[in-house]
Amino acid sequence: MRIFIQNGHIIDPSQGINGIGDILIEGGKIKEIGLQTPSHPTIGEGGHSDSELRIIDAGGLMVLPGLIDMHVHLREPGFEYKETINTGTLAAVKGGFTTVCCMPNTFPVNDNASVTEFIKRKASQEGHCTVLPIGAITKGQKGEELAEIGTMKKEGCIAFSDDGNPVMSSLLMRRALEYSKAFNVPVISHCEDLTLSEDGVMNEGLLSVTLGLKGIPVEAEQIMIFRDILLAELTGGRLHIAHVSTEGSVNLIRNAKKRGVQVTAETCPHYFSITEEAVIGYNTNAKVNPPLRTKRDVEAIREGLRDGTIDVIATDHAPHHRDEKLRAFDMAPFGISGLETAMSLSLQLVEEGILTMNQLVEKMTLNPTKILQINKGSLKTGSDADIVIADQGREFKIDTERFVSKGRNTPFEGLVLKGMPVITICKGKIYEQ
Ligand SMILES: [Zn+2]
After folding, report:
1. Which helix H or strand E contains 203, and what residues bound it?
2. Local structure of 123: helix, strand or coil
3. Nearest alpha-carbon partner for 77 in 32, 121, 42
4. Spacing, Cα 289 to ligand 1 middle (Å)
5. Which of 149, 199, 212, 340 has the greatest number of CB atoms lying within 10 Å of its CB?
6. What pLDDT, in 10s, does the model give residues 53-85?
7. 55: helix, strand or coil
8. How far apart (Å, rounded) are the C-alpha atoms in residues 217 and 197?
9. What is the CA(164)–ligand 1 centre distance, in A?
């Protein structure tokens, strides 16, 4: 089948494209892309009137490369009651994502090539978008012994992380970064000093005292970021910091980049949209790790996004079963189901003038491809036809009843936002809202 997308506002930072134009898709690939000019109105759909041609009028809409989420938890194998590769990737395409990278904290842990192979096979059989596995840094994510990074890379792992847990041993983290240099893959660090965060359930401060909940100080994150930056400097390895949540973290990363350290960073929509106050009322849907912070941190994260300190917006999509989030606040698991709300929440940064549309698209397509060195995130002729068409003016009410993810755990229920994805095309297959 061929698809002709016409009159859309195309933004593709990989080619420096930003203007009204048309795209022709054939056989799941971008066949032709062209901007409209007064002398050259359109690339045309080839003059064919066959029934195999689907025409999408994108007048008034944004046409972007399919979004890439470099931090999701698909829960399969092992926790299929929370999410599966099938439901997680369906949530992804509904949210405008055409590529997701899944963290290894499954059961069994993705710490060897057979688990990697299982995820890839399942994704090709039941997945709705491209799934790229992230392998564990240490065996069983126990932080004791390095996993088989080389063989997992050969099997298709595009990065390594013990996400969910930090690598507490500085020596092991040093070795992991040395491997990252040798194999030319990024190490994604979940920065948390467990001796400081131990048993904490929310941000440490006046509010945690008022609520009688044990706090996690910002230093638990910042100490590990500082350590990892020093180790990246020592080894020349490629370090990527996951889910940055504090002002101090942004400052550390900004300074390291100025010194030329090979460090990149991501944040998630909840860290630039809401504060720790979402926890008031013991709302377990606002329980996330690292925790939601203060207004000052939110402002710093936004500034970090604006000035390029933070390269990527990822979701840290962490779905849980409803019953688990119904537990008392102390006992409920950490995590937010983020794939179906990320694009609308991120579009608010454009709406508020913090990012240009081009910058936002970079952080959700081009920058992840550079860090992961994958051949995605572009509308170049010959690329996979991975596209999201978004309506910047359309109101979107967050309604968990309409989620296709099994995880309905979000602190954004009922929020009305401006802008949403309306059509996602993944390798030429069309998903409409
Ligand atoms: Zn994490």
Report:
1. strand 202-203
2. helix
3. 121
4. 7
5. 340
6. 999 999 999 999 999 999 999 999 999 999 999
7. strand
8. 7
9. 4
Q: Which of 27, 72, 33 is nearest to 53 (CA)?
A: 27
Strand partners, 134: 159
14-42 per-position pLDDT tens digit: 999 999 999 999 999 999 999 987 655 55
- Distance (Å) from CA 107 to ligand 1 centroid: 17
Percentage above 90 pLDDT, the chain: 95
Which are the catalytic amino acids? 316
**This model's pTM is above 0.90:** yes
Interval 295-308 mean pLDDT: 98
Query: Which strand (E) or helix (H) includes residue 97?
Result: strand 97-102
Task: For residues 326 and 269, give the distance between their C-alpha atoms in angstroms, rounded to a whole number.
Answer: 23
Compute, in angstroms, the gap from residue 142 CA to the centroid of ligand 1.
Answer: 15
Interval between CA 299 and ligand 1 midpoint (Å): 21
DSSP-assigned letters across all residues of 386-433:
-EEEEEEEEEEE--GGG--SS----TTTT-EEEEEEEEEEETTEEEE-
Closest by CA position to 314, among listed 271, 376, 263, 276: 271
